[in-house]
Design brief:
Blueprint lengths: L11 H12 L3 H4 L1 H8 L2 H28 L6 H9 L1 H35 L6 H15 L4 H29 L16 H15 L15 H30 L2 H7 L3 H36 L1 H9 L6 H4 L10 H17 L2 H7 L1 H21 L14 H20 L1 H24 L10
Length: about 450
């Protein structure tokens, strides 16, 4: 009987929609005020969004060279395994599947539940059921053939671009405020605050790396994966800076500062009226649903990739692909169950924050891996080549290092807890290695 394998059917537009759709959630609509508050002026706020985007683009360019050489399912897990060995690959995957994936999905779903309850005037008790119900429906969709999840990504990405375009166009052509050179009264500008603002924008750009988890399902990944990552990040930079400029053109700096996270909702109500304001809010909810779809589609591929290498308990089940849909149904169900439990019993926002230090440390290791791979290949890349090498990967390493150092200083307790999470995986790795040492069979990814 022929072995079931992942379906390599995703084209460029699906990959691009997943990059954009997974990154753009709620941050683009709610972070303008916080970045402005940190920087104290519209000029520095726009610069923070641009600098965060440039660092993210350097990250994407750097990882594109690795992804073109290692176009396999599992993304970062596979890259770490290939470059540094199975021990470090396991730890990078372990942190993602046991904490980061369910926590980040739970955090976004919980926020969606809050928005929906507020929008329809429901009680707070509906937040968790709405969150779990939403991720259940999206998980069921992604148990079908991957083309359905990809099509949903394209549709939700188009839908989320509509309110974004409306904000940008209104600000450019109908805004009357001074978008450049405006300052917030009473806020002192400092390098330290600017650094914190850039840090916030980098988090808003995060998520693009998840497309690499689908390396085994993208057509011609050595070409399309780098193209989707680079164009996706470039478009996101334009959209983030455009929305920020549009809001700055429509509301005064002091008004944005006073409104805080409500600045976009206030803008929508004043710009488009009550109906238009509600439509923008619906667009924001669709944006979040699209981000959830991208994460629920991509994260289970890490479970599957690790199970295929016999690096998880119940590897046979987690590495199973449905014969008809060619998708990792059990892995998707596992993510759904873990996420639902986290939504009900823990603070998913805090859990996702705890993972930042370790996750970005693995990012740095992957970026350094570009130099390792080039040395192995005689100093030349195979496939996609990073422009302005080695300047671009150095920018990626420094920018990501800034995130790691910031987490170490601002959240030392969280950093220590995240290291403990990682350490818990070490005995599991050696137990699994002993358990499966006589079974050399692995699934072809």
């Amino acid at each position: 009987m022929e072995e079931t394998q992942l379906n390599r059917s995703l084209g460029f537009w699906s990959a691009l929609a997943l990059v954009i759709g997974t990154v753009i959630g709620s941050g683009i609509f709610f972070k303008q005020a916080s970045v402005l508050q940190m920087t104290g002026s519209t000029n520095l706020a726009l610069m923070a969004w641009l600098l965060g985007g440039i660092i993210t683009l350097a990250d994407g360019l750097t990882l594109s060279e690795i992804g073109a050489q290692i176009p396999h399912t599992g993304g970062l897990y596979h890259y770490m395994t290939h470059i540094y060995g199975e021990f470090w690959g396991f730890l990078s995957g372990w942190m993602q599947i046991i904490v980061y994936a369910p926590a980040i999905v739970g955090s976004i779903a919980g926020y969606l539940g809050l928005l929906v309850t507020n929008f329809f005037g429901l009680g707070a008790g509906w937040k968790a059921p709405i969150a779990i119900g939403t991720i259940t429906l999206i998980a069921l969709l992604n148990m079908l053939a991957n083309r359905y999840g990809a099509a949903f990504a394209i549709v939700t990405t188009i839908c989320k671009l509509l309110p974004i375009a409306a904000i940008i166009i209104f600000g450019l052509f109908f805004g009357h405020e001074q978008a450049l050179g405006a300052t917030v009264a009473g806020i002192h500008q400092s390098v330290g605050n600017f650094g914190v603002a850039v840090l916030g924008t980098i988090f808003a750009y995060d998520g693009w790396i998840l497309i690499t988890n689908l390396g085994g399902e993208i057509k011609r990944p050595e070409k399309l994966l780098p193209l989707a990552i680079i164009l996706g990040i470039l478009l996101i930079i334009i959209l983030y800076v455009g929305v920020t400029f549009g809001i700055f053109r429509s509301l005064s700096a002091n008004r944005i500062n006073a409104l805080g996270q409500n600045a976009t909702a206030y803008f929508a109500l004043n710009a488009f009226g009550p109906l238009g304001g509600r439509l923008v809010n619906i667009g924001i909810m669709i944006s979040i649903i699209g981000a959830l779809n991208g994460k629920i589609m991509t994260f289970p591929r890490i479970y599957y990739a690790m199970a295929a290498k016999k690096q998880l308990p119940f590897s046979k089940q987690l590495g199973h692909l449905n014969r008809h849909t060619q998708t990792p149904v059990v892995a998707t169900l596992t993510l759904l169950v873990l996420t639902s439990i986290m939504i009900l019993v823990v603070d998913t926002d805090r859990l996702s924050e705890l993972c930042i230090f370790v996750m970005y440390s693995f990012y740095i290791a992957a970026f350094i891996g570009v130099f390792v791979l080039r040395r192995r290949n005689g100093g030349k890349p195979t496939g996609f080549s990073i422009p302005l090498y080695p300047f671009v990967p150095i920018v990626a390493i420094i920018g990501t290092g800034f995130v790691v150092v910031s987490e170490l200083f601002f959240d030392f307790t969280g950093t220590a807890i995240s290291i403990i999470f990682i350490a818990l995986g070490i005995p599991l790795y050696y137990w699994l290695k002993h358990h499966y040492r006589n079974d050399g069979s692995v699934t072809k990814l």
